Amino acid sequence: MKDNISRRPRNSSFPLxxxxxxEMRITDWHxxxxxxxxxxxxxxxxFHPGFLGYDNINFAWLIFQVHLLLxxxxxxxxxxxxxxxxxxxxxxxxIYQNRIIGFAYIKVKRRMPDRGFCATxxxxxxxxxxxxxxASILMESLLRLAHxxxxxEISLMVLLNNIRxxxxxxxxxxxxVGKTIDCYRGKIYQALIMRKYL
Length: 198
Ligand SMILES: CC(C)(COP(=O)(O)OP(=O)(O)OC[C@H]1O[C@@H](n2cnc3c(N)ncnc32)[C@H](O)[C@@H]1OP(=O)(O)O)[C@@H](O)C(=O)NCCC(=O)NCCS
Known about the structure:
Layout: E1 20-23, H1 29-37, H2 41-46, H3 59-71, H4 74-83, E2 89-96, E3 99-111, E4 117-125, H5 134-148, E5 151-159, H6 163-171, E6 175-184, E7 187-197
Parallel strand pairs: 4-5
Antiparallel strand pairs: 1-2, 2-3, 3-4, 5-7, 6-7
Bound molecules: coenzyme A.
Coenzyme A binds at residues 2, 5, 7-8, 43, 46-47, 122-125, 130-136, 158, 162-165, 167-168, 171.
């Protein structure tokens, strides 16, 4: 797929080196939701994990916030990973001029028989920093973190027309393993299931 698409030239004018990529802190919480709410409708169709933004607050959303915030406390996350792995997030943020311009997370799904974990992953980069290599930095940091936390398998869903994300995931060793459909604001989209073993 990557060979058939025309790449934008890399946006080298963006000061990528001044961006800080680190694990999410509790104090980032509001900024992440604000960033999500500012995305275009197309981006939200591509990336709608269901727990971001203030648009759609419901009981499940509240529960996810608790899981996300608890996961920001590293010693607690270690304990949860042992006792209640399916509520654990590994969330990263990218910060530029005190503003969150990227968010990427792994969400543990369950423990595997060999005692590792399987999980899902997603990433979003603000429009101003696209094409700069930021998603690559986030992916590399996230995959390193996944390895440290004994994640052995990552599966994700990506819309069939999300060429940039498909190309990104292929670059990091994800393979297409199936097709599915996704639903966003009443519209049905064709989607791919991609998987990577670590
Ligand atoms: C997908 C997304 C995260 C890429 O972010 P980015 O910072 O622009 O990506 P990078 O500059 O780090 O590029 C990383 C890789 O992504 C792919 N990519 C990025 N822009 C692309 C483009 N315009 N066309 C094709 N592939 C592209 C390439 O594989 C690229 O690797 P390369 O530069 O070595 O060729 C960003 O476009 C985004 O946030 N999209 C909306 C949210 C989304 O779709 N998230 C995924 C949900 S499943």
